[in-house]
Fold this sequence. Notes:
- The protein has helices spanning 16-25, 27-49, 54-72, 75-81, 83-100, 107-135, 141-166, 173-179, 182-192, 199-204, 208-219, 249-271, 273-279, 287-311, 314-334, 340-353, 355-368, 371-402, 405-426, 435-439.
- By secondary structure, it is an all-alpha fold.
- Helix 3 packs parallel to helix 6 and helix 4 runs antiparallel to helix 18.
- The longest helix has 32 residues, at 371-402.
- It is globular and about 60 Å long.
- It is a multi-pass membrane protein.
- This is Sugar porter family MFS transporter.
Amino acid sequence: xxxxxxxxxxxxxxxxxxxxxxxxxxxxxxxxxxxxxxxxxxxxxxxxxxxxxxxxxxxxxxxxxxxxxxxxxxxxxxxxxxxxxxxxxxxxxxxxxxxxxxxxxxxxxxxxxxxxxxxxxxxxxxxxxxxxxxxxxxxxxxxxxxxxxxxxxxxxxxxxxxxxxxxxxxxxxxxxxxxxxxxxxxxxxxxxxxxxxxxxxxxxxxxxxxxxxxxxxxxxxxxxxxxxxxxxxxxxxxxxxxxxxxxxxxxxxxxxxxxxxxxxxxxxxxxxxxxxxxxxxxxxxxxxxxxxxxxxxxxxxxxxxxxxxxxxxxxxxxxxxxxxxxxxxxxxxxxxxxxxxxxxxxxxxxxxxxxxxxxxxxxxxxxxxxxxxxxxxxxxxxxxxxxxxxxxxxxxxxxxxxxxxxxxxxxxxxxxxxxxxxxxxxxxxxxxxxxxxxxxxxxxxxxxxxxxxxxxxxxx
Length: 460
């Protein structure tokens, strides 16, 4: 029996290039966590200084999320013009908007600028994760994309600590807090310069010589175009409609809905962490540090998920995770007045089990859709998720004020349970499949091996 030839790209060892690309691609999620969390501390000063009522406080809290929703549509642009070009441009916009926050004088100005920040972050999701997925070996794809979510919580934790420390600067400390996101953004722009374009995208656009050159630069002289399947040019046009076609509609609904159910309560907790902890009578006077601890728990929850995503499998892991999250947030809703041990247990269980959906949020859309619509898919499913995030974050302070922490958390438990039902009904299994096989809806139900070679009409 003839031994099957090793795929130089899909079976590559984890290299220094993969490490650098993972770190650089994690920059967007880091800044996302930082920008969305630093506002929680800043609002304690902004609200009285700018005379924000509950409506404006909620709008400022969700402004970046609305921007992410808008920015998600730019995934279509990255599928059209390429990953590498957009990889740097979006961060330049983020730097400018970060610095402009220092000078705002009204609530609507802050809302507008943070809307722009969100657009930049939302654009980076499909850009960076598509590029990362298309360079990732199959055995390391789950971990590489999962690490980007860990970066989100690292950014969130850093933001809470920095914000709490900056409060001592004075009543105008919030200006320095908000502008501080420009510092890591500048560093990341410099680091990202020189990143190669995705050879899969180049090949899909017919730029064969460039694709082969990148392959040999990254994987060595033995790499060739035979290691990535050539898509059928008759079916490889970038189009929003493909996401809602017969083959991919179920996948679009799965990713968008589980993503929405995961982030709706989570983003509300991170954005209004200090107010939430005050409602539970925890960390009085140091809610920023308390929020940082919660963010660290979310980070810790991602670590076992990085290993389980391959060992346990995509589908079992996300179903188990949503079940655990539902139990955790249910405890917070049923026991709003304690005892303290139950409240802490609820936070810990919810945060630790959230690691599964966190790891899958960018892994799933990048695996389940082909090259010509991969960025579009990440963008659109991110947009769907932000419906939940925006409403959850906007209504969270309103719920606290009108109904209290218990009923508000019970609503979050219902949303999380809905995510569990979605995963049971729709989650596919793509563990250990090549990117070609996983992203092809027609063959995804078969074995983890590609049907044949690049001669088969399979999307890359």
